[in-house]
Amino acid sequence: MILARNFRIFTLLVLSLSIFITSCKDSEDPSDPNDNIDDDKVENPIVNINNWIQANMDYWYYWHASMNNPISDESAPEAYFNHLLVNQDRFSVIYPNFQELLSALEGTSKEAGYEFILFRESETTSNVLAVVLYVKKGSPAEAAGIQRDDVIVGINDTQITLNNYQELLGDTEEAHTLNMYRYDDEEETYLPIEDPVEVSTTIFSENPLFMDSVYTIGDKKIGYLVYNFFAPGDNTSFNQELDEVFSDFQTKGINEFVLDLRYNGGGYVNSAINLASLIAPNITETDVFTRTEYNSNVQPDYIEQYGEASLTNHFTSKSQNIGSLIASNTLYVIATGNTASSSELIINGLKPFMNVVIVGETTYGKNVGSIPIEDEEDEDNDYGMLPIVSKSFNSQNQSEYSEGFTPNIPINEFAYRLLPFGDTNEVLLKAVIEQITGVSSGDRLKTFDRKVLANSLERKARFGKMVESPIKLQE
Question: What distance in Å separates the CA atoms of residue 91 and residue 84, rounded to the nearest whole number?
C-alpha cells in the first residue's frame, strides 16, 4: 500500500531525528521526557512502545504545544497515549494491531454484515431495541434474510436490556442468533419472527457504494447515490466503480443530484477528492478542494521541501463529472449525526462551487484529520496510532464546522419507519424529492417516540476519521 510504505520510510526518519535531537539536548534540558532513555534499547517492551508514542506525538500531534505531560513510561500504551491528549481532542486513537487497523479503515473486518441503532423501548422498561439500519450486500446477514427496519429484541435468546446490551453486542462478533420483529403492512404493526435468525460471521470486505438510482419525476431526472465510507484512495477498484456510476448518470441525462451520506462516518481523503471531482461544476485541476494545516513542526518541513502547494488538495479531471448537468447548481446531501469527517469534508469543500442543501440532522462535527502511524523499528510493537495531525479548510479558508453542519431541512429519520433505501416514500429521500420538484405529497406518516442510546456505526475504526496521505519527506 503506497500510503503505508511511504509513511514507514518517513517514520524511520522522524524517529532517527528524534533520537539525535534528544541526545543533543540531554545536558541542556533536564525536564525533557526522553532524558532517561539509555543509549541502548530499553529491555522493557512497554517502555519502548511508550517512547515510540512520545516521539511521534511530539512531532506530529496537531496540538503538540499544549499536549499533556506523560505519565509513567511503564504504563499501558493505551493509558499513556490517552493521557497525552488535550481536552478538545475526542478523535485521536491507538490500536493494539496496526495491520488490523488498516484493514478496518479499508472496510474489511470480521462481522455478520449488518448495522443497527439502539433505542430504549420505553421510559417504563429497561428493555432495549436494536433497529437494523442496513444490511451489506453479499454478507452473512443478507444470506440470513435480515432487512432494514427489522427490530432485534434479543441476542442468543437473551433479552437486550440497559444492563447487558454492551456485553451482548460483543457476542455479535461471532456466530449468533437474533430474536426479531418485522413490520407487517397488513396489520400495520411489528410482529415477531417465529424462529430465531441464525447469523454467521466472516472476514468481510464492504463495498462503500451501497446503491445508485435515477428517478424521473416530471421534467426532473434525479440521480441518487448512497455512499457509506471513503475507502483508501489507492483502492482503484472502488474509484473505477464510482466513475462508472457517474458515467451512467451522464448517459441517463440527470439534471439534479442527491448524495446520501447519512451513515458515512469518514475515511480516506483521497477517496473524498475523487467523489468531489465527479460532482463539482466547472472545475479544473488548478482548483483547490481543500487546504491542510499542520503543526509548527510539520508544516515548515512540507513547505521547505515541496512549497505551499504541498498543503493543498486539488480537484482531479474526471470525464464522468456531472457538475454541468445539475440545472439548479445544487447538491442535496442527506445527512445525520453519523455523517462525519471526510463526509463533512465533501460538504465544506464543495460549498465554494455550488449550493449545498442538507436534509436530515446536524452532522457529527469533525474538521481535523489523522495519519496512520506504525513502528517499523521494533518488531515487538504491533500498535498503530491515528493521532490528529491536521485541520482542513476549503478554498475560501473556511473550517468552522467543529459543531457540525446544521441541516437546511431538519428531519429525524428515526422518528419514522426505516423504509428501504431508494424507496421514494423513505422519509429523507421523500423530503429531498419534494424540495427538488416543489410538490408535496401531503402524506401524514406514523411517528415513533424513540430515544437513541448508541449505534454500531460508531464502533467502526473508520468512524469519525479523515485519513490523510502524507507526502514523503526527504532527510
Answer: 13
Enter the C-alpha cell of residue 434.
Answer: 419534494
Q: Taking the CA atoms of the chain, what radius of gyration do you get in angstroms?
A: 24
Which ranges in 172-289 belong to alpha helices (H)? 236-251, 269-279
Q: How far apart are CA 380 and CA 44, in angstroms?
A: 11
**pLDDT of 32:** 45
pLDDT of res. 233: 54
Grid cell, residue 26, equals 540531554
Question: Which of these, 309, 318, 310, 210, lies nearest to 273 by C-alpha position?
Answer: 318
Strands 220-227 and 256-260: parallel
CA atoms within 13 A on the CB side of 419: 14
Parts of the chain with a pLDDT under 50: 1-40
> Measured between alpha carbons, how far is 141 from 115 in angstroms, rounded to an integer?
10
d(CA 258, CA 436): 10
The answer to whether 111 touches 118, Cβ cutoff 8 Å, is: no
Looking up cell 470525464 gives: 319
CA distance 208 to 160: 30
Taking the model in full, what pTM does it have? 0.89
Q: State how far the Cα of 363 lies from the Cα of 350, in Å rounded to an integer.
A: 16
Residue 128, exposed/middle/buried by CB under 10 A (0-12, 13-18, 19+)? buried
DSSP 8-class letter at 193: -
E strand map for 375-469: 384-386, 388-393, 409-410, 451-455, 465-467
On whether the CB atoms of residues 221 and 214 are closer than 8 A, the answer is yes
**d(C-alpha 340, C-alpha 391), whole Å:** 14
Give the rounded distance of the alpha carbon of 201 from its chain centre: 22
Residues 6+ apart with CB under 8 A from 183: 149, 189, 190, 191, 417
Helix (H) or strand (E) holding 103: helix 98-105
Label residues 186-225 b or e (16+ Cβ within 10 Å = b): eeeebeebeeebebebeebebebbbbbeebeeeebbbbbb
Which three cell numbers, joined as nine digits, stand for 166? Answer: 454492551
Coil, strand or helix at 461: coil
The C-alpha atoms of residue 103 and residue 438 are separated, in whole angstroms, by 44
Pairwise CA distance, residues 238 & 230, whole Å: 9
Taking the mean position of all CA atoms in its chain, how far away is CA 9?
26
State the pLDDT at residue 54.
Answer: 98
Alpha helices in 351-437 (DSSP H): 427-437
Residues in the chain: 475
Q: Return the half-sphere exposure (C-beta side, CA atoms, 13 A cut-off) of residue 471.
A: 19
Return the SS3 of 77.
helix
Q: Are 56 and 11 in contact (CB under 8 A)?
A: yes
Neighbouring C-beta atoms of residue 297, cutoff 10 Å: 15
Measured over the CA atoms of residue 448, residue 454, residue 460 and residue 463, the dihedral's sign is positive
